[in-house]
Specification:
Helix 1 runs antiparallel to helix 3. By secondary structure, this protein is α+β, with helices and mostly antiparallel strands.
Length: about 250
């Protein structure tokens, strides 16, 4: 199944943000401004925010509007413009993908135009009401020091794409690579036997080969000995009788 592409994209420039705001206007882990409000420190400038449109339904809750074959548009659901930002929740000391409406983005843009940054101070964002009657307020004080190097900015586009209905994480479909042991290394099996404990496969010693890697010394070939010929037996001389001579006297 092809992945859907959400409507919108990274802002890129402040001019693009101004143009986007003039036009008007997923997942449970995308943070939204709660009723009690939230205090954040943005760890990216507005040029890195992502503009998108989203729908709301009782079944899917909030989810991004996509370019083709949008479930929300097919059901006639209203699409609202939102901005996804990377911010540090100061109460929890962690980076969150914070969704803000266009009205909050307008206020933050004015702060950027005045201070040339939104990363030098904390912002208290609150909301009142619900549904179409929701209103937001942004309050801030002077710049303060903050250990920004401890918090890494989020990949906002990837987060949005993972919140599109039907988009599944590719990592879940990938099979784990099998490890082939070499030498005498131990190999822990990925499959668990009954009882929950992993089996450890004992390393097997390689069979010793008859062929050695070391060069052999040249051995001289044995000398061939000459074959011994059988000795000829002397011929027996025929007797006088066999020759037809008379027997000599005295014999």
């Amino acid at each position: 199944m092809a992945k859907g592409k959400f409507k919108g994209g990274e802002i890129g420039t402040m001019k693009a943000l101004t143009k986007s705001l003039k036009r008007g206007g997923g997942g449970d882990f995308m943070k939204r401004v709660p009723v009690e409000g939230i205090t954040v420190r943005f760890n990216t400038e507005p040029t890195k925010w992502v503009e998108f449109y989203e729908h709301y339904s009782e079944a899917l809750k909030y989810f991004p509007c996509v370019v083709d074959e949008c479930v929300g548009c097919a059901d006639g659901l209203r699409a609202s413009k939102r901005y996804l930002t990377s911010a540090v929740d100061t109460s929890e000391s962690r980076t969150i993908p914070l969704v803000i409406p266009a009205t909050v983005a307008v206020v933050l843009k004015k702060r950027f135009d005045k201070n040339h940054t939104v990363m030098d101070r904390d912002y208290d964002i609150t909301r009142e009401g619900s549904g179409l009657d929701t209103t937001y307020d942004v309050d801030t004080e002077g710049p303060t020091k903050f250990p920004m190097h401890k918090y890494e900015a989020l990949d906002l586009v990837k987060i949005l794409e993972s919140n599109i209905p039907g988009n599944e994480d590719d990592d879940d479909d990938e099979d784990e690579a099998e490890y082939e042991p070499s030498g005498m290394d131990e190999f822990v099996a990925t499959d668990k036997p009954k009882g929950g404990k992993k089996k450890k496969h004992k390393p097997q010693r390689e069979q010793e080969s008859d062929v050695s890697d070391k060069p052999r010394r040249k051995v001289a070939a044995p000398m061939k000995r000459p074959m011994k010929r059988p000795m000829k037996r002397p011929m027996e001389r025929p007797s006088w009788f066999e020759l037809g001579y008379p027997r000599p006297p005295g014999r």
